[in-house]
Amino acid sequence: MRVLIAPDSYKGTLTSVEVARALAAGWWRARPSDVVLLVPLADGGEGTLAAIHAAGGWTVMTAAARDPLWRPMRAPWLQSADGSRAVVEMAAASGLSRVAPEERDAQRASSLGTGDLLRAALDAGVRDVVLGIGGSATTDGGAGMLGALGALIDDGLGLVDLAGLDPRLASLRLSVACDVTNPLLGPSGAAAVYGPQKGATLDDVAVLDRRLHRWADALEAATGRSERDAPGAGAAGGMGFALLCLSNLLGSLELRPGVDLVMEAAGFASALAGADLVVTGEGRIDAQTAFGKTALGVARRAQAAGVRCIAVGGGVTAEGVAALAAVGAQAVPASDPQLPLAEAIAAGAAPLIACGERLARLEP
Q1: Which of 76, 139, 147, 349: CA 20 to 30 A from 243?
Q2: Is 316 helix (H, G, I), strand (E, B) or coil?
Q3: Are 311 and 285 in contact (CB under 8 A)?
Q4: In the CATH hierarchy, which top-level class contains the domain 48-259?
Q5: Would residue 215 be called left, alpha or beta, if left means φ above 0 and alpha means ψ between -120 and 50 degrees?
Q6: Segment 199-225 mean pLDDT
């Protein structure tokens, strides 16, 4: 058989690379002669760089950047072998994982570091960037990112001057991995919905929403665009809003589901060609799976290609099973559903290795 293994990470436990390797190791125990291709995936958040780098053809670069609390650091990004393309992960510099839980400061957290990485890619001659904006620690509406790229921002007066914006942006083709459809402001906006997971109290949320309102007035006036209510404007603490407002100043801008962009960058389509079976998976296959998570994206591609698909979940609910069944895929748990979560996590890759072997032995 020719088997394609293309999972997402089991967040907080195993990277998508580790998940793919574990499932493959188990499969080969039972069927050592099968051709097994590994295409680890991600959704545009943390782990995107690792997944795309694993596909080959990319070099890990590092650049001086600032973390969400403005501290100097070095952060990774990817450059293609021919030097023309880059992958930038917002989480690498401006991610929640860059800030210890006790350090989280929702009002102060800045997206400066993401701008630093974009500028590093431009300095390297790149003009085609995939930007994953999941996993951010920020709710600054992308103001820090714009500042790092040359914009002058007077938050106190609510003014934005884009005259100094890096002129190379005008030839940049930017593809943004964005799975969020929230507007920028209000009860469904960036501060209200995502602020609390970034350390915001109820009082912080109110402050952040007012600040974003003032920022929206200023940036829309500076760019002549009205994007605060656009789907995705509230993504990554308002980073989506800033990027949408820049549409006329960029070579091109496209917001797309993260899994689609990562699959393209990782060469999923070529790996799928000729496959007899696709095995995907993620930490939980549940009601959220129906809203475009990685397993669903893979299952849809497999169905379109007429290839059978199995999704392995660290946890599997009836809603998740139904979501995947609707696109012809089967969902299975990685381990005994009765096993306590803490024990399953502590077991690391072992349950996935066993699951990979179990699935292979069921094949004719």
Answers
A1: 76
A2: strand
A3: yes
A4: alpha beta
A5: alpha
A6: 96
DSSP conformation class of 96:
G
| Positions of E strands within the chain | 2-5, 35-38, 58-66, 72-80, 85-89, 128-132, 152-154, 159-161, 173-177, 252-256, 277-285, 308-316, 329-333
Q: Is 330 helix (H, G, I), strand (E, B) or coil?
A: strand
Task: Take residue 122 and report the two structure tokens written for it.
Answer: 């431009």
Q: Write the CB contacts of 352 (distance below 8 Å, at least 6 apart in sequence).
A: 14, 19, 22, 23, 26, 312, 334
Q: Supply φ then ψ for residue 196, to 5 degrees.
A: -60, -35
Residue with tokens 């994982």: 97
For the domain with range 2-39+267-361, which CATH number is right: 3.40.710.10, 3.30.830.10, 3.40.50.10350, 3.40.50.720? 3.40.50.10350
Average pLDDT score over residue span 285-313: 92
DSSP assignments along 221-283, one per residue: HHHT---TTSTTTTGGGGHHHHHHHTGGGSSEEEEE-HHHHHHHHHTHHHHHTT-SEEEEEEE
β partners of residue 59: 79
Tokens of 226: 């009205």
94 touches 111 (CB < 8 A)? yes
Which sequence spans correspond to the domains of the chain?
2-39+267-361, 48-259
The torsion angle over the Cα atoms of residues 27, 31, 32 and 37, rounded to 10 degrees, is -50
Identify the band that residue 85 occupies on the pLDDT scale cut at 50, 70 and 90.
very high
**Residue 116: CB partners within 8 Å, gap ≥ 6?**
63, 64, 65, 66, 75, 93, 148
The mean per-residue pLDDT over the stretch 36-44 comes to 94
